[in-house]
Structure formats: structure tokens, C-alpha cells
TrEMBL record:
Gene3D superfamilies documented for this protein: 2-enoyl-CoA Hydratase, Chain A, domain 1, Lyase 2-enoyl-coa Hydratase, Chain A, domain 2
Family according to the record: Belongs to the enoyl-CoA hydratase/isomerase family.
Pfam families linked to this entry: ECH_1 (PF00378)
Highest taxon above the source species: Bacteria
This protein's name: Enoyl-CoA hydratase/isomerase family protein
Family matches, as InterPro entries: ClpP/crotonase-like_dom_sf, Enoyl-CoA_hydra/iso, Enoyl-CoA_hydra_C, Enoyl-CoA_Hydratase/Isomerase
UniProt signal peptide: none
SUPFAM superfamilies for the chain: ClpP/crotonase (SSF52096)
């Protein structure tokens, strides 16, 4: 496996095929600046072709998941605009688009991505929750998309929120900047599980990890790619491609091992 990169704003810990990534800017409630965004992309690029890493667990340091975008980055972008250099591309566009590239990359990651949501989950943090495969939230977590109250659109986040919870609910929470807790987030479909303590959150995480370990890594990667193709390409093409994926899988070492393990009533060799 490739050595994981050193990241100033991320804590990384890999054990038994699970990579824990902790957003580590607690002094600003883990708000994302451009450096953190780039570091996340670097990590996900490094593990993209590493089947040994089956799961990524994202959380924030010191009891907060993420306060969204760091307004200091926006202030720096404004200074660059005011400098008026002709050779400088629009820094606001570049800053905003970088976040969209990061969230798109994590959305398409072949690993199962789990978010542990505590404290506050705002703006870009909300976007990360919406692209996770499994989201576990503390019941008291405060969710929201406050961008419109700042005179801004949630530009890169909006498509992922609509895809996660549907247009009807997305309209209300984006156009009012409403705050809501973990229980309501579960009712919306933002999160899958709600906990009432750190211990319960750890138990829920352990249960999900145990279930994921029963699944073959390549089969999970292929399944995720098929799901993310729904609505993006014609259904006939999607099903043709999926049939090719199935044929390759059943003839692969993983597929042969899985079917043999089922027949022989034993755990497959990828089960830890």
C-alpha cells in the first residue's frame, strides 16, 4: 500500500482496512480552508487504487464535524480580486470550484465512506454528510446550510443535497438557512443512524464496519460505481455495462472464492 501523505490539517490512522480521517482544525470548528480541501483530495487520490482499504471513516476533531468553509479564505480571495492583477484567474471561482472537485471525488471514492457527525455540521460539512455511504449522527448535532444568510448560494453543495434528500426538503432548508438536529436529519434522510452518546456512536460504527467486512472489496467497489451511474447514462447502457461487470466478477478470484465459501458454508477469505 502506498504510504499515506503527511497532512497538516488531517489526522490519518489506518487499521485493518479502515482509514480514519479526522478533520483537524479545532480552533475554527474544523472549517475547511483550501489547504484542507487539497489535502483531502490528495489522500483520496492516494488510496483510490488500494483495495486493501475498504472503508474511510470521516469525523472532526474535538466534538465538531465541520463548520463549513473558512471565511478567512474568502477574505484572502477578496484581497486578490482587489489587487486587480490581470494574470490572476477569478480566485472566488477557483476556491469554490476546488471544494466541488473535492466533494465529487469523495462521492465517487471506491471505498465505503462513513461520516460520524457531531457538534455542528454546516455548509461544506453538510455536503460531506450528503455524499457519505453511511452517516451516523449524534442526536444533538446541529445541521444547516447557512450560506443564503451570508448572501451566498450553497453552490457546490446544492446538487448533492438535492440528490440526497430530494428537491422538496432541499428547497426549504436552503432557502431558509434553517438549523435542525440529528433526529430531524434522520427523518430527512441525511443520516442513517442517530446516537445518544459517544458509546452508542462507537457501537453503531462497529456494527457497520462488521457488516462491511463481510462484503468482498472489489464487489463493493463495482456496486458503488453502478449505483452512482444511475441517471447519469442511458439505462440500457448502464445494464449492458453492469452485465459485463457481473461476468468479470463471477469469473474473478474474488467471485470464485465467494461462491465456494457459500457452498462450503465457511467465511470467505476477505472476512477478518
Amino acid at each position: 500500500m502506498k504510504t499515506l501523505p503527511d497532512c497538516e490539517h488531517l489526522l490519518l490512522n489506518e487499521q485493518n482496512g479502515v482509514l480514519a480521517i479526522t478533520l483537524n482544525r479545532p480552533e475554527v470548528r474544523n472549517a475547511m480552508n483550501l489547504a484542507l480541501v487539497n489535502q483531502l483530495m490528495t489522500v483520496f487520490t492516494a488510496i483510490e487504487q488500494v483495495p486493501a482499504i475498504k472503508v474511510v471513516v470521516l469525523r472532526g476533531a474535538n466534538g465538531n464535524f465541520c463548520a463549513g468553509g473558512d471565511l478567512k479564505d474568502m477574505a484572502n480571495a477578496r484581497k486578490a480580486v482587489n489587487a486587480g492583477k490581470d494574470d490572476v484567474k477569478d480566485p472566488f471561482y477557483q476556491l469554490n470550484r476546488a471544494f466541488g472537485q473535492m466533494i465529487s471525488q469523495i462521492n465517487a471514492a471506491p471505498q465505503v465512506v462513513i461520516t460520524l457527525l457531531e457538534g455542528i455540521v454546516l455548509g461544506g460539512g453538510f455536503g460531506l454528510a450528503c455524499i457519505s455511504d453511511i452517516a451516523i449522527a449524534d442526536s444533538q448535532t446541529q445541521f444547516g446550510l447557512p450560506e443564503t444568510r451570508l448572501g451566498l448560494p450553497p453552490a457546490q453543495i446544492a446538487p448533492f443535497v438535492v440528490e440526497r434528500i430530494g428537491l422538496t426538503q432541499a428547497r426549504r432548508i436552503m432557502l431558509t438557512g434553517a438549523r435542525f438536529d440529528g433526529v430531524e436529519a434522520k427523518n430527512f434522510g441525511v443520516v442513517h443512524f442517530v446516537s445518544n452518546s459517544n458509546e452508542e456512536m462507537s457501537q453503531l460504527l462497529a456494527q457497520q464496519l462488521a457488516q462491511i467486512q463481510l462484503c468482498a472489496p472489489n464487489a463493493n467497489r463495482t456496486t458503488k460505481r453502478i449505483m452512482l451511474s444511475v441517471g447519469k447514462i442511458a439505462n440500457k447502457t448502464l445494464l449492458d455495462n453492469a452485465a459485463q461487470d457481473f461476468s468479470m466478477a463471477i469469473q474473478s478470484a474474488e467471485g470464485i472464492e465467494g461462491t465456494n465459501a457459500f457452498i462450503e458454508k465457511r467465511p470467505a477469505n476477505w472476512v477478518r
